[in-house]
Automatic annotation (TrEMBL):
Family per record: Belongs to the class-II pyridine nucleotide-disulfide oxidoreductase family.
Function: Serves to protect the cell against DNA damage by alkyl hydroperoxides. It can use either NADH or NADPH as electron donor for direct reduction of redox dyes or of alkyl hydroperoxides when combined with the AhpC protein.
Residues of the full protein shown: 214 to 524 of 524
Cofactor(s) named in the record: FAD
Subunit description: Homodimer.
Magnesium found in the keyword field: no
Protein name per the record: Alkyl hydroperoxide reductase subunit F
Keyword Coiled coil belongs to the record: yes
Source superkingdom: Bacteria
Native source organism of the sequence: Oceanisphaera marina
Keyword terms, alphabetized: Coiled coil, Disulfide bond, FAD, Flavoprotein, NAD, Oxidoreductase, Redox-active center
Positions of the FAD/NAD(P)-binding domain: 2-297
């Protein structure tokens, strides 16, 4: 068995594996796709100490750094669950991670770092213009739209927070909400309504992202009351309709999740199952960012090491 098995090969998983391996303990890293969301990112300007990099380049550096240590990398494999070992003739306190392929990995401690994915609009043009005007992270991509007109799709807390945040950078923000009312907290709604360069349109169903082949030039939506098709000229579209943690495989396990599917962790990265730690976008950590995920991965690995020397 491993001493520490990291599930996930994004920034959180890579940081956890490096911190664990540097303790000289047997470390495994299981990843469906090394690099995680970073592989889907073009420009990164907020990875501190690196003024500009690109996703695939950062992902390659993560992998190279992990490979400098004796980490056993198991890639293109998916975890299908987690449980305490039933085999009490062997060492006790072992955890088992069954894989979708049918195999099972065993470890004394496990770090869950399976990340998350943005919920997509699923309309024509969205995929084609991803990273060419269609964006999902205002903290990451907001500054690219300085002085331009943008739309935010989604009127929940994240959408309204994004609109308020963007309003300070861009020329104008239009928020499109599908329902007849916004779901965001009243205080955020009040702030958005009192911001002069934010317009809010309810009952708006986004139907298409349009562009010139290179970048976004606007979007179509249907006014759900009149049934009419409308058009907005925008350079950017921020999709804020939810971040879904990749934790479906933990449903029914002893690892406690929130109702949104986030792994519940404490300040040390510990989950409800002893010996199991978690880090990054899959967890209840506030703010989902590369530097935050890396810090959380380091925390989880140090906590896992602490757990091992005490058990
Ligand atoms: P992820 O990066 O999501 O990695 C998850 C890992 O787990 C992957 O290796 C995946 O294959 C693996 N995995 C998932 N399920 C399983 C399973 N069942 N079994 C095995 N492996 C599994 N942040 C910034 O700080 N700056 C930016 O500029 C920025 N831009 C972004 C742009 C885009 C388009 C997107 C989508 C995100 C952006 N982010 C940015 C956010 C940032 O990418 C994430 O916060 C960060 O990648 C989270 O790291 P993570 O390791 O927690 O998860």
């Amino acid at each position: 068995p491993y001493d520490v098995l990291v599930v996930g090969g994004g920034p959180a998983g890579a940081a956890a594996a490096i911190y664990a391996a540097r303790k000289g303990i047997r470390t495994g890293l299981l990843a469906e796709r090394f690099g995680g969301q970073v592989m889907d990112t073009v420009g990164i300007e907020n990875f501190i100490s690196v003024p500009y990099t690109e996703g695939p380049k950062l992902a390659a550096s993560l992998e190279q750094h992990v490979k400098e240590y004796g980490v056993d990398i198991i890639s293109a494999q998916r975890a299908a669950g987690i449980q305490q070992s039933m085999d009490d003739t062997a060492q006790h306190n072992l955890l088992e991670v069954p894989l979708a392929s049918g195999a099972t990995l065993k470890s004394r401690a496990v770090i869950l770092a399976t990340g998350a994915r943005w919920r997509e609009l699923n309309v024509p043009g969205e995929t084609e213009y991803r990273n060419k005007g269609v964006a999902y992270c205002p903290h990451c991509d907001g500054p690219f739209f300085k002085g331009k007109r943008v739309a935010v799709v989604g009127g929940g807390n994240s959408g309204i927070e994004a609109a308020i945040d963007l309003a300070g950078l861009v020329e104008h923000v239009t928020v499109l909400e599908f329902a007849d009312t916004l779901r965001a907290d009243e205080v955020l709604q009040r702030k958005a309504r009192s911001t002069p360069n934010i317009d809010i349109i309810s009952n708006a169903q986004t139907t298409e992202v349009v562009g010139d082949g290179q970048k976004v030039s606007g979007m179509h939506y249907i006014d759900r009351i009149s049934g009419e098709q409308r058009h907005l000229d925008v350079a950017g579209i921020f999709v804020q309709i939810g971040l879904v943690p990749n934790t479906e495989f933990l449903q029914g396990s002893a690892v406690e999740l929130t109702r949104h599917g986030e792994v519940i962790i404490d300040a040390k990265g510990a989950t409800s199952l002893p010996g199991v730690f978690a880090a990054g976008d899959a967890t209840t950590v506030p703010y989902k960012q590369i530097v935050i995920a890396m810090g959380a991965g380091a925390t989880a690995a140090l906590s896992a090491f602490d757990h091992l020397i005490r058990s």
